[in-house]
Amino acid sequence: MKVFGICASPRKGTTHYVLDHALNTLEGHGFETEIFTCQAKDLKPCMHCDYCLENKKCIIQDDMAEVYENLQSADGIILATPIHSGSVSAQMSIIMDRTRALEAVDYNLLRGKIGMSIAVGGDRTGGQDLAHMTIINYFMIHGIIPVSGGPFGSNLGASFWSEDSLDKIKEDTYGMESLNRTLIEFENFLNKYIY
Ligand SMILES: Cc1cc2nc3c(=O)[nH]c(=O)nc-3n(C[C@H](O)[C@H](O)[C@H](O)COP(=O)(O)O)c2cc1C
Predict the structure, then answer these.
(1) Using one digit for the tens of pLDDT, what is the confidence trace for 51-63?
(2) pTM above 0.85, yes or no
(3) Which one of 7, 99, 109, 185 is CB 3.0 to 4.6 Å from 37, fit for a cystine?
(4) For residue 158, what are the domain limits?
């Protein structure tokens, strides 16, 4: 089974660190993984030109091609975002909007895949929950089954407090526990519902 992780930070920082940890853990459990990082990527916003509805592909030629390819072949999807202005980053928002073109090709393309969310804020309560809800809404709209790590600390997914520092996020044991609990459920769902 394949898990595709998207790091929606414009840099290789704290979000990349925790997503990489998650994918390494999954690889250790026998999953194939792929990561897409937004650092230095050309990702343009959807123009709502509706070209995709008519022509079954997006008119914009940029690095979304790599995202489209990996989303199609993935069984599980991890969306990892830094908190920007209290919610998901602009890069995450662009990627979510641009997958409209995938459903123009095949309405069922994303349906039934398993999804989980990772949110990394500089502040302890900087908007992680709203970012999770934005991602979970996206999952629901597209028929992706959202999982959390359960009601004791990972209610909506994995939440981190980075204090804007790679050293500090490594000390966020509570955040790491929320990730590990979410990963356990993610694996359970993949094993139960994906054949
Ligand atoms: C434009 C911008 C807006 C931000 N807004 C918030 C915010 O609203 N809440 C918060 O907790 N952190 C905020 N941060 C801090 C980042 O979430 C934090 O530094 C995070 O660890 C960055 O992830 P990265 O290292 O993967 O880029 C903001 C950072 C930037 C660049």
Answers:
(1) 999 999 999 999 9
(2) yes
(3) 7
(4) 2-193
